[in-house]
Description:
Elements: E1 2-6, H1 16-29, E2 33-37, H2 46-55, E3 59-63, H3 77-97, E4 101-104, H4 118-141, E5 145-148, H5 162-172, E6 177-182, H6 183-189, H7 193-200, E7 204-209, H8 224-233, E8 239-242, H9 253-256, H10 266-280
Parallel strand pairs: 1-2, 1-8, 2-3, 3-4, 4-5, 5-6, 6-7, 7-8
Helix pairs in contact: 1-2, 3-4, 4-5, 7-8
Amino acid sequence: MRYGINTWVWTSPLTNEEFKDIASKVAKIGYDWIEIPLEGLDDIDYAQAATVIKENGLGISCTGALGPDRDLISPDPAIRENAKAYVRGAIDAAQQLGATNLVGPFYSAVGRTWQQTEAERQSDLELVVASLKELGAYAADHGVVICLEPLNRFETSFMNLASQIAELVDRVDSPGVAMMLDTFHMHIEERNSGDAIRLAGKRLKHIHTCESDRGAPGTGQVHWDLVAQAIKDIGYNGPLVIESFTPKVKSIARAAAIWRPLADSPEALAENGYQFLKKITA
Length: 282
């Protein structure tokens, strides 16, 4: 198992100077993995960041999201093309950083919710499958896997369940496209988080961990016993990454409703979350 944390816990947008300090803190706590958000594709120098990652002995993944002008199921072809250009740029960035997993809701804009008929949903599925086949091939050629994440109903009305992402991944059928799950979103949408993890099975390449309030794992209402057992049941040995947020994260603050600090300090959240995850997966 690899234990990681996203730099969104500390800052947004990320700079190289901040990353150097954060990476050192993360390694000292005991983490062996760090996750870099790709809000903009020119926020940091990837070569410098890759050196910092190696110096601290860390594994690396990248996360991203689609906004109003980047949406793979938008009715506007220009917006769809802009989304694909962003994802290809994120794949390039992940490769430069040494990351295999590029994770996030890479299908529609975060925060966009609407009522769909079944016919409209199937039409949108066909649209996103076609785009992800193209992007999955590009990812595989660059040694990267796009790990698709279902979000809760307040952040999207398109992909809320593990079963929906599993269907999407199976329809894309590409070595460059897999699944990720997030304990926060599962706590809202799934009837049983353990069953969702078991349904994902071998498709699952990445897990985000945070509490029912997006705080440190172990401080809220998530059923961690179900999560831990399911991880063991499927033989999952990939990254367990804490994804929590500073209120500075303007890019998704409204969609994710990040209005207040989620711990006494980012360091406290990181330390307490790490110790808890190690305990339940021992």
